[in-house]
Amino acid sequence: MAITIDRNDTQLIDVPRGLTNVVVAETRIGDVRGAEGFFHYRGVSGVELAADARFEDAWRLVALGALPADDSDAGRWRTRTAAARRIPAPVSETLPSIARSGLDPMAQLRTALAVVSAADGRRPLYDEDEPERADDAVRLAAVAPALIAALHRLGRGLDPLAPDPALDPISDYLRMLLGSTPDARLVAALGTYLTAAIDHGFNASTFTARVIASTGADLASCVGGALGALAGPLHGGAPARTLDMLDEIGSPERAEAWVRDRVQHGGRIMGFGHAVYRTEDPRSRLLRGVAQRLRSDGLASDRVDLAVTVEQTVLRVLDELKPGRSLRTNVELYAAVVMEACGIPRELFTPTFASARLIGWGAHACEQVQDGKILRPSSRYVGPAAG
Fold it and tell me: Is 200 among the residues known to form the active site?
């Protein structure tokens, strides 16, 4: 039950740092049950959808509220999202300058999405009806992978590849990025990861999108703010740093000494710990299996073996040196390994993750704007006294 406080009431309400366990809104989009190691999208297990790489089905479920009713319904959804991948000509003309701007890939994506929204003539969410808002959300989520791939290729002196509406979104992303038709097993692996990445509770970026949406701003502004939050190393910016860690360790034989030194000196170990899960992150378990299958199929390097050894070592050393501390593997360790096996450059790990999370951000922004109440908390001033 939502509680409304009269703004004339001057009584401040203290909440935990980080807003831990503070309920700020009600949602029908999904939930994360950390103690159980379970998450779902509108009542449907996220793990089950991801295990079957049902990315397009999960997209429709989160965006429109239901899975496809039948094959015909699924076909219409695929046609709609495929058409929305198109990059407008005026935007294509601006992409080379964005690619040469010196901005990092996440900032490039923010900029390009804003330009697409402007070229499309998208309006503030406040001025749109529900179908228009849903169309905005589909458009930005669909075009994002095409923008990521085009900007990456332009930055390396290569011509962008236009989206192919005959392909599914995962295959098309890898084709546009790498320049060739991808192996179906890699498509399924990436599809599993991105399906599991669509939504995950009121994390920092999703909450950011909802705060901006509460002002009635356009959707590109909402997801632009969310992209800014996701770029932070403590949120979505960590998968690449996980590979940096594996690079530093180098081989399974060095894992024990490296982990013990890091734990004993209080250093951060990337790919471990989560704000909600106090048990194994179900996405990590899922992607470990994906990575190991790619390894056995000869599609992934011995990086997989190193990641498994590091995971086992970290958990064992933590149990020994930090007993009772619920620090377990999170999604980032094996997400990094899977994306690397798929040929995705390290600097595009977070933008690739964001391309899926855009679906969740769009749904949350559209849900939040329906509330009609601007999110405006208070603060307690602790600086110098006023003169």
Answer: no
